Amino acid sequence: MDELKVNKSFWDFYAEIYDEKKADFDKYLRGRSIKTLQTFFKPGQNLIEIGCGTGTESLEMIKYGCKLTLTDLSPQMLKKAYEKIGDKARYVNLPAEYIDSFKIQFDGAYSSFGVLNCVTDIGEFFKKLHTILKPNAYFIASIINRWYWGDFLFFALGITNYLKKRLKGWGYISVDGKEYNAKANFYSVFKIKKIASPYFELEKCIAFPILLPPPYLKPKDRLPEKIFKILDKIESALNGLFPFKYFGEQTIFIFRRK
After folding, report:
1. Residue 133 vs residues 45, 99, 110, 128: alpha-carbon distances, Å
2. Which of these, 49, 50, 87, 163, has the minimum number of CB atoms within 10 Å of its CB?
């Protein structure tokens, strides 16, 4: 079975439990992601979302006033998104690998929470995305980072073993401790910048998160609210600065189409 079929099968399965499993993302990272999108995109713009999942961010961007085309490899994910959004968006069952199937150009694009880590050829993706965006359009993507400083700490403390996967550069996706055949690749900030550079200029990158533990460690449940707020405030000041911006669990990339 080829990689796209494997990925489709996994994400169709995951669609039924996605919102439950991503509840910890929604507690603090989802809001930061949406705030970033609404900083760079404007109401009225015609945007395309690549890997929309169940449509949580899509719904907020529609409320903000953008026109959305939602794409996803998984029909089940699109079904869940439609249940939230209804006829307020356009839905296209399309892998990111075939993003150049569109014959129009969009005002901007975004892809959140590691969708691009699962793309089979990320270099070809950037090349194809370039063709469907207007000149100077923004593309905003959050991508799982290969070099996350926290993995060294969590591995040493025996909390997680994600460090092994990141050092290897790829790993199979796990849900509740069980590995599935769907594969994720991990990229450094410098690697993504280099891959995208023929087609996109990197304007800014932001660690996502850098001081707060990643959502799979449930920091909102583990940390006292006062401590969480202090760390969140410090993180907001540091996450776009050198060298911190290169070592987050994920990275938000703000690209502008050449």
Report:
1. 12, 11, 11, 9
2. 87
